[in-house]
Amino acid sequence: MKLALKVTEIEQLSPLVKRFRFEDPAGMALPVFSGGAHLTVEMSERTEAGEIIRRNSYSLISDPYDGGGYEIAVRREDKGRGGSLYMHTKVAEGDEITVSVPSNLFQLDLRARKHVLIGGGIGITPFLSQLKQLDMEQRPYELHYAARSRDEAAGLKLLPQAAHVHVHISEEGSRMDLGAVLDGQPLGTHVYTCGPGGLIAAVADQAARLGWPKASVHSEAFTAPPPGEPFDVVIASTGQSIHVKADQSLLEALEAARVEVEYSCRGGACGRCHTKVTACDGRILHNDHWLSDDERAAQQDIMPCMSRFKGARLELDL
Amino acid sequence: MPNTEFSPSIDSRPTYAGLISQGAAPAIMVADEAGAGALVDLAATDASVMKHAHVVLVAKSAGVAGQLKGLAPVAVHAAPDFDAATPLVTKLLAEARMGTQLYLAGSEGLIGHVSALAFAVGLPLDEIQAEHRGSIARRMQCVHCKGITEEVTTDPFVCSHCGLTLFVRDHFSRRLGVFQGVCVDAETPGVVPEAVEIRA
Lengths: 318, 200
Known about the structure:
Chain A has six helices and 16 strands. Chain A has helices at 83-89, 125-136, 178-182, 197-209, 250-256, 293-298, and strands spanning 2-14, 17-23, 38-47, 50-59, 70-75, 96-100, 114-120, 141-147, 165-169, 189-194, 217-220, 231-235, 241-244, 275-285, 301-302, 308-316. Chain A has a six-stranded antiparallel sheet with strand order 4-3-6-1-2-5. Chain B has helices at residues 36-45, 63-69, 82-95, 108-120, and strands at 27-32, 53-58, 75-79, 101-106, 128-132, 138-142, 148-152, 154-155, 157-158, 165-173, 178-183, 196-197. Chains A and B meet through loops of A and loops of B.
């Protein structure tokens, strides 16, 4: 389901990050969501080659219980496919914008006795809605926000000043010590990490070393699909050949060619766009967080939202 | 006497894989008289498992407590029944840190009860180790009056709270740590099948 909303506020949070607020044009209440949810923003742009539609997913940073509007924070990626650049340079207050209804792949486990939230860089975003939910429900939590510099720490403007909110700025010598964060937490604590892959792996590693159950360790790594070299893909049912441009994801190319593929997160995390590969002469560049190592190696499955291809022929069971 | 093998049932019926040492980590161990044997066997495979272990023994006799003390855990806390053991276990869980291992041994009632206490403080259920020893009596909740009847060994049985005759289901509440008992003659009042001993 899609919502036609209006951009009502744009705020520069840091040199690279802007906050956007979307509201219903008629002031109607929007569906509420749960902390950690994201929505997909549709960005249509007219170019010489025709209309391009990009869709990127962003974590909601506003109060989950507030149906008055949705807010997201977008980091400008100058080397990306152009989605975040479009948000930064083309979207203005008063514009209409189409978004999906929120869905959640990173929800809190509310059976936990305590929640430890660890955000690195722009990975702070899902926690901004989660901590509003935790505050509202009066659940014990602590939040650790790690960034290289104050300039990069866009979340600083949006975080409350509280004893259980810890900011670690590595440039100022206050690097986050994961051992100190995780050691001695009460039984029944759950930890959630969002940020660069290295941070997620470091938290999982530290937790395992301290004997934390796997089910108490959560993470979200979904990012916008990376650009790459152009390639071609063949649709098995019709024989149609589709060209995937350098700044286009495979999913976007399929959509532009009106080939129907289910999707949700568009960040390689939810598994909805899982597609079977019927022929592969070359190498699939898996960029998702969904397929197992064995599945990746077998090259019989692909997640079109994130992954690309290098080689002579890729045929999809579509 | 090894871990009891239960006959296959619905997927949601709890099963108990047996105790495996996680090494010299902080641990909470809860056992009844029959389950104490599983702790003795566990310590025999790896004596270090007892090094940081608090043992709660739910037993009326003192003899087993002496045997467990011989395994040299941090402490053996004895309680005559669940009601007396619950505050002890709750306190140990409240003070425990992440990485603490939970080992349960004995009846399904004990395993279910302590698992529910641990679940309530946020421990994932699949992280709790359990081994069934001794009686196959079940802790049953009446789905009608919500009362819990302990030590149920026949099917059907009479709810000790509301008096309905209840069918022993394999459906299990992990939140409460009890099997569910459903009125056996709701559609045909008075037509009650003959009670038989429940089997593993």
